[in-house]
Every structure is written in structure tokens, then in C-alpha cells.
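Q: I'm writing up a methods section and want to include an example of the input and output format. Could you take the sequence below and give the corresponding predicted C-alpha cells, formatted cleanly so I can copy it straight into the document?
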Amino acid sequence: MNVIVAGAGEVGGHAAEVLSADGHNVTVIDLSEQRLRALSDTLDLRTLVGHCSHFSVLRDAGVEKCDLMIATTQVDEINLLAASVAKAAGAKKTFVRAHHTAYFAMRGTSYAQQLGIDELICPEHRTSLAIARTIRNPGSIALEEFARGELLMQRFPVDASAPAVGKMLSELVIPASARVATVEREEQASLADAKTTLGEGDHVTLIGETKSFEAARKLFAKDREKRIHIAIMGGTTTAVWLCRALKSRVFSVRLFVPKRERAEELSEKLSHVTIIDADPTDSATSADEHLGKVDAFVAVTPEDERNILACAQAKAQGVKASIAVVQRAKYLHLLPHVGIDHAFSPRADAVKAILHLIDTGPIRSLATFADGAATVYELFPSKRAKIIGNELRNIKMPAQSMIAAIRRDGRAHVPGAEDQIVAGDAILVIGPNDIADDLRKLFVTK
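A: Here is the clean output for your methods example:
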């Protein structure tokens, strides 16, 4: 592919490195000759000094024959403009790195759709979901990335007095926007169907839209489930996304924001979170807040060194799990040696998203869960596929599989029996690990 990367910073530079190593023809645009020289000295690519949003610069970069343009500068507005101009000038696909929630969350309008941009990538959002999955259920990786946090996936035990005990799933009045994916009993996992009967101590994996998830959960588990206590340091965008991803009665979240003005701002946005205007690394604050007893301590300030030291200190105080966000990936391999349990790099997460998006195969196996009993597939139906225009009730899916979610125009939902699949949809299917060929016949074959 012919690829143009706008911005030679952490994300753009790493993306250029990976894409050029894969054999793509890469041109990097940046205003900094020093940054470009650092890339060209070590990588086989072309560099161009200039404003990436200027048509003349994009033309010199070869935008008319560009297969993919990736805008990764530090300024969202420049990225949006550059990608929009590139698309109008002939780029086949455009991806934009967006930091600000206003652009990525699509509240009121879709900036990507309005500007002709194919994908918005928010590294902070991806990192927050990765952290949330580590704290919660690792099996939720595929669903939450697919749905940008609009859907939830959790695994929990069935309570002895829950309404679901002793009943088949077909007998339960489960909200239409929720599904039981798997059931685990005595170390044996299986995919659920209408005849599955639940018992005390079974573990279920529930999928549902955020708005109805708690109502569905009450059918299987009571409110007395042990709360998980989380402490987060930093008032960054990543912290905000993480707090939203952990919005559940299962979690008790405290967010430490040393700057009072920012703390007051976030207290209005995050009503379910306890905002504390203090530094958790201060010994007095740590003692007063009993931070040594929390289940997880997460450091998400903009300073790598501060995050690393704070996590090391929290771990030394007795925190069960410490999680650090680092912008410079060179630190990642060092962190286990100082006692930090998990580390995440927004730069690396953004590049993973880009590589995932340029994988144009119609069927992708994204993840497995329930001890390997279930696989999550992402599918992109062809325009002439057999299932296009049919109601889901009339589609004969492979045995023990289900359509868990549909993403259309950037929005994801759990479909009902009367929903139809239309051209351009992205589909998430959960089923056994050997049904790829059967799914291909349904979703791809003409």
C-alpha cells in the first residue's frame, strides 16, 4: 500500500516504523526536520517537511495514489482537516487519531461521517478499555473494542437465590438488549442456548447494552457481590474514559486529581466516582485513604516517570495490583522488575488499532474466552451475501453460535430477532472455534 502518515510523533513514528517494516510505501509529513531525520536515518521511507493539512503538501506526498492516510498529530482539528482534505484529493481510506471526547464520542453528530473520514482512533480510549478489561473480565476484549464501550461483557457466578436458578434461559424475561453467551459449570464451559438451565454456582458470561446491563444482571446475581476498590491517579482523558468503563455497582472508584479546578470539573462529569483533590503519593493522603488496601491502583498522569514511581510505591504499600500508563514504550520491559503488574502504552494501542483496521479480511477471529470454549468473530458481510436484508429470526446460524452485536454508522447494539443486516454493517458473532467456514458461507459467499 501507499501510506501517508501525518505527524512524526510517538504514534505516527511508531505507525511508520511498523508499516514500513511490513513492506508498505510510507511517506511521513511533519513540520520538524529533526523528527523526520530521526525516522529516515533508521527506516526505509520518504519524508516531507510541511503542513499536513495543506493540499499542496499532500499532493507532493502523492495523495492522489494514496491507499491510506493516517493523521496522528497532537492537534485533533489539524488531523480532522488533513484527513478530510486527503480524502477529497483521492486517498482511498483515512484514519484520524483523536484525543478529545467531543470528536470521538459522537454526541450529537459523527465528525467522521460529516468529514468523510473512515475511522477515528482514540489511543486514550483504547488504553482505558484495556485497563478496564485487566481489572474486570479479560474475555470482554473483543466486544468492548468493537462497540467503543457501548456494550458490556462480564463473567460472574449465579447466586443461590437468583431468579434464574433452576430455569431454562427461554423461561427468563431477559432484556432484549442482553444475551447470555456462555455458562461454566464444574470447570466445564459451554455456549448457552434457549434450553440451558442454570444452577447455583454456575458462572455466566453476560453481554448487554450499557443502559440495560444491570437489569439483566439481577436475574443471575444479587447486589451483595463483593465490591472492587479502585484508586486512579491523574485527571487525564484516559482517567475519564477509565472511570466511565468502570461504571458499575461492582466497582468503588476514587480518582485523585491534585489540581482543584480540574477536580471540580470532573466531579460534575463523573457522578459515580469519588473525586479527591489530593496527591495519592503523599504519605498522609495514602494513610488517610487506606490506599494499601485497594484492589488496584492505576496511574494515568501524562508523566511516565511519575506513573512508574507511584505504582511502585503503591505496590510496596500492599496494593493487590498496580497498573501504569507510559507514553514511551521503551519503559515497558522494565516495569515488571520494579514490581508493577501491568503497563499500557497508548502509542502501541493506537498502532494495534491501525493494523487491525487495515486487515481487510471479511472474517477475523478476535479472541477466545471461557477457557477456549467460545470464540469472538468479527465479520464484514459482502453486499451480495445471503443474509443481507433478512431478519435475524430467519437466519440459520451455525450450531451454538449467536449474533452478539451489530455496528452500524459507528454505533453498536445488541440486535433483536426482527433486526436485519444491511450492507456496510460490522457483525460480532460468538460461537465455537471451528465455524469460520460456515460463517463465510453465510456472510461472504454470494
